[in-house]
Write a structure and sequence with these properties.
GO terms for molecular function: FMN binding; metal ion binding; phosphopantothenate--cysteine ligase activity; phosphopantothenoylcysteine decarboxylase activity. This is Coenzyme A biosynthesis bifunctional protein CoaBC. Keywords: Decarboxylase, Flavoprotein, FMN, Ligase, Lyase, Magnesium, Metal-binding, Multifunctional enzyme. The protein has 14 helices and 19 strands. It is α/β, with parallel strands linked by helices. It folds into two domains: 2-173, Rossmann fold (3-Layer(aba) Sandwich), CATH 3.40.50; 203-422, Rossmann fold, CATH 3.40.50.10300. Helix 1 crosses helix 8 and helix 11 (267-277) runs parallel beside helix 12 (326-334).
Length: 432
């Protein structure tokens, strides 16, 4: 396949070198077309060495070959990573001041744009309008990731990882192609680029983060959940057209525009919000790591260490009580109603009684939800990590869908594939 890799003038241009390697290792012929600004970040010798092809940025080189027309005409796929705010604007308005923008005008193949810019630029009304215009014309514009940007800034606008861009690009070429990651369909990968909206007119409620149960004014019982997976689930649903509400326990990450954020701290607060909101949604996804126990008593003042020389190791005993099972409560409240479809998450370590999957299947039967997403957790596994592997179990079926290892966003699209397959067009569950 003949691929044109456009590179915009942003600091994330270095990641495009990794994307180029993925394309060439797949046996594709890649022509790199950087902007002049991009060459300030990664020079032409790097692109030429990695692609094995000459690099140019203007329309005047090799003029007898008419490159400003031929490159786009002959391409099977055009990918631009990073796509700056300036490039998005030029593409949306049909400007053609350099070789790359000429290629975008002449290409009649799938075009995938991977934006990267500061949050304020991504969220500006002009950028959002340009993205909407491009998507209406059939261009796949991938949602940027959230995370560390240039300097100390963080937020939406980070270039997605090269593996995710590669997967979305392959899906854009042929949405009937096989999955690029185990358990993830091309449909879901294309959804991440904005080209599939199979959740349009759906309302989705997602919980994420880890609850904290106060011991005293300065201490709490908590867990290692970062909230990244639940945030990725919410963002993937929004990219596929859903109206999304995110109930977030102690989430220290930026949330994409358009997602309704409801912050909570404790298990009881999370339960109250989920119980109050669930009935108004088509799908509820319980990703949050809810503490199983909370202190029986809250100390109004900080619990002090004792300084008794006769007992220097003395420590207070803390009585615990069980927290409510939020997911089981949602199943009970739904009863025989058609909606919402309920998706649970099971963070398991495995133990002497069974494997992660064994425990997951037992939990699915016990909880009574429609789908259960099982992942293996522990120190250095899943919590806070960028990649993960999950197993999706469906009530009434012995089949298991394995997704990953892949980024949390790619995994989220695989989960939504499974959810969409369980939804009737009316929003009713089709599992019974």
């Amino acid at each position: 396949m003949r691929i044109v890799l456009g590179v915009g003038g942003g600091i994330a241009a270095y990641k495009a070198a990794l994307l180029l390697r993925l394309f060439t290792e797949g046996g594709h012929e890649v022509t790199v077309v950087p902007t002049e600004a991009a060459l300030h970040f990664v020079g032409a010798p790097t692109w030429e060495a990695l692609s094995g092809r000459q690099v140019q940025t203007d329309v005047w080189s090799n003029i007898t070959d008419v490159p400003h027309v031929r490159i786009g005409q002959q391409a099977d796929l055009v990918v631009v990573a990073p796509t700056t705010a300036d490039l998005l604007a030029k593409a949306a308005h049909g400007l053609a001041g350099d070789l790359l923008t000429n290629v975008l005008l002449t290409a009649r193949c799938p075009v995938v744009l991977a934006p990267a810019m500061h949050t304020e630029m991504w969220e500006h009304a002009a950028t959002l309008a340009n993205v909407a215009t491009l998507r209406e014309r059939g261009v796949s514009v991938i949602e940027p990731a959230s995370g560390r940007l240039t300097g100390t800034d963080t937020g939406p606008g980070r270039l997605p990882e090269p593996e995710d861009i590669h997967a979305a690009a392959m899906a854009a070429v042929d949405c009937t192609a096989g999955p690029q990651f185990p358990g993830v369909s091309a449909r879901g990968l294309a959804a991440g680029s904005g080209s599939v909206h199979d959740l349009t007119d759906r309302s989705v409620l997602v919980s994420t983060g880890g609850t904290r149960e106060p011991l005293d004014p300065v201490r709490y019982l908590g867990n290692r959940s970062s909230g990244k997976q639940g945030l990725a689930v919410a963002e993937a649903a929004a990219a596929r057209g859903a109206r999304v509400t995110l109930v977030a326990a102690n989430l220290d990450l930026p949330v994409a525009p358009g997602i309704d954020l409801v912050p909570v701290e404790t298990a009881l607060e999370l339960q109250a919000e989920m119980d109050a909101r669930a009935a108004g949604h088509d799908v509820v996804v319980m990703v949050a790591a809810v503490a199983d126990f909370r202190p029986a008593d809250y100390a109004e003042a900080k619990i002090k260490k004792t300084h008794d020389p006769a007992d220097p190791d003395a420590a207070p005993s803390i009585a615990l009580v069980r927290n409510p099972d939020v997911l089981a409560g949602l199943v009970t409240a739904r009863g025989d109603a058609a909606a919402p479809l309920l998706v649970g998450f099971a963070a398991e370590t495995g133990d002497a009684t069974g494997s992660v999957l064994d425990l997951g299947r037992a939990k699915l039967a016990r909880k009574g939800c429609d789908l259960l997403v099982v992942n293996e957790v522990g120190e250095g596994l899943t919590f806070g990590a960028e990649d993960t592997t999950v197993h999706v179990l469906t009530r009434g079926s012995d089949d298991t869908v394995d997704i990953g290892p892949a980024s949390k966003r790619v995994v989220s699209d695989g989960i939504w594939d499974a959810v969409v397959d369980c939804l009737h067009p009316t929003g009713r569950r089709v599992l019974d």
